[in-house]
Design brief:
77% helix; elongated; mainly alpha; 106 residues
C-alpha cells in the first residue's frame, strides 16, 4: 500500500511537470521550444556526415593507389621458376629446375 501511494504521488508530480513544460514550450506562449536545439543538433550531425564522406573518398583513393602499387610490384618482381617459362620442353625444364635448385642450395 505504501508503494502504491508513493507511485500515485510520483505520477501527480510528473503530470504537473508535463503540464508546465507544455505551457512553457507551446507555440505562441513565448516559451522555449526544443526545435532550435534539434535543428542545431541535426546541423552538427550533417556536418560530421559530410566530413566522414570526404574522408571516405580520400581513403578509397589511397587504397586504390596502394592496390595499384602492389600489383605493379607483383608484375615487376615476379620470379618464375624454369618450369613456368614458355617454350621449354618438359625434360629441359626439369633439368633447368634441378640446376637452379642445386645452385640455390650451395
Amino acid at each position: 500500500m505504501v508503494q502504491v501511494r508513493f507511485l500515485e504521488q510520483q505520477n501527480r508530480v510528473l503530470e504537473t511537470k508535463w503540464k508546465l513544460l507544455q505551457e512553457q514550450g507551446g507555440p505562441g506562449t513565448g516559451g522555449r521550444s526544443l526545435e532550435p536545439v534539434f535543428e542545431a543538433f541535426l546541423a552538427r550531425l550533417r556536418k560530421q556526415l559530410d566530413a566522414l564522406a570526404t574522408e571516405k573518398q580520400q581513403l578509397q583513393a589511397e587504397l586504390k593507389s596502394f592496390q595499384d602499387m602492389v600489383e605493379d610490384f607483383k608484375t615487376r618482381y615476379e620470379v618464375k621458376t624454369p618450369l613456368e617459362q614458355p617454350g621449354k620442353s618438359r625434360d629441359h625444364k626439369h633439368w633447368q629446375y634441378r640446376v637452379c635448385f642445386n645452385e640455390q642450395k650451395m
